[in-house]
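Subject: Protein record for review, amino acid sequence with backbone structure tokens
How to read it: Take the token row as a discrete description of the fold.
Enclosed: The protein record, placed directly beneath this head.
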Amino acid sequence: MERKFVLIDIGSTFTKVTAVDLAAAEIVARASAPTTPTDVSVGLRMGLEALVLPEEQIAVSRKLACSSAAGGLRMVAIGLVEDLTVKAAKQAALGAGARVLRTYSFQLTEEDRHEIIELQPDIILLAGGTDGGNTVNILHNAKVLASLPEPVPIVIAGNRSVSAEVKGLFPQSFSTYVAPNVMPQIGKLVVEPAREVIRQVFMEKIVYAKGLNKAARYIEGIFMPTPAAVLRAGRLLSEGTRTTAGWGDLMVVDVGGATTDVHSFGSGEPSKAGVVLRGLPEPHAKRTVEGDLGVRVSILSLLEAVGTAVVAEELGWTEEEVLAWAERLSAQPELLPGNEREEELDAALARQAVRFGVGRHVGRLSELFTPSGLIWVQDGKDLSEVKTVIGTGGVVVNSRRPEQILSGAAGTENAPFELRPKEPQYLVDRLYIMAPMGLLAEEYPEEAFALLTNVLESKSL
């Protein structure tokens, strides 16, 4: 068995390089370099050169990579009914590490077609109809997509009765892939096979389309989008391995400059007796992406969601001061806090991003009056019993107040019906270990689990 790996995360801003020793279950060296968008191999080479290891060790190590550079994996998801197959398609896309630009339901219009052209997605996920059910919509939508001026990889994951016919509607210039239906029956989700196909498309097509193949001279390959690697690591940590018990239900919150990603791992079943579930079942490993909750590129939309007055009151600033600094960060996202006052603003904004991001991710309780009396209804996942929240992302990792930031995930008196974690412990992924361990977990889950446990527990707050 290979004893040493160099694991690489090619991010949109920095390329992070981590060398691990499987036998010792430890990190032996880390380095980073700015990502060079025009040719990511330049930044990768700089990162490898900065890695303090004997040259012969780097040479013999296996080098695996994930990437969110060049905008990540941009997808459009299309289904039949918004609350059913569209939701199932979106879950498949998000679980594969994609950024879902737009979802469409029912029959695509000419306006929809023009919008898809403008969005320029990397992949389109086409679903619609349960097996043996509606065929009209998916066939209509396939014809619309087949008329796009530029070919796009199409993942077909709808009614299996017409999958072959749908595939045949596309010109040869389109790359088409057939996956099992994401919703073969009403109320039943089967998203994992579609996720795997999306990952396959990422490796076969998207890596080359984004120019990431230029890095091939230094690494074995780019194996998945970074968010998919984080999801894989979180699932491993939650479920454990054949020989080691996992941590159980947990949550990972990644606060970035452009988005806040929330991952949860658990059944999400009601934790209280007498609560009735409503809607589609939630995936055990769930990811949501909030494109308006970033602390740099999306800072103005974050303030709009939270309310400038709320942040100003928390900090003791004027609204004008908060807005002026936010506009500066929006224009210069590379800026870092230069003093304690600016650090306090970063922490406050990040806590609000966590609060809103987790609030949108978790399930909710509502009252329903029936002929038999009042009942409680749950929509989404009950994450109130989650015991561990792991924070990652530069603003969390580099903060002197990470617990203050992550406290935004917990339940509050102001939102009593949101099924948030009640009393979690907070851990910080200070060494950016989640994505590398997601890569390693594909072949070496036992070693990846040991490394995750060692690093996260040693860096606890």
In short: The CA atoms of residues 49 and 55 lie 9 Å apart. Residues 340-361 form the longest helix (22 residues).
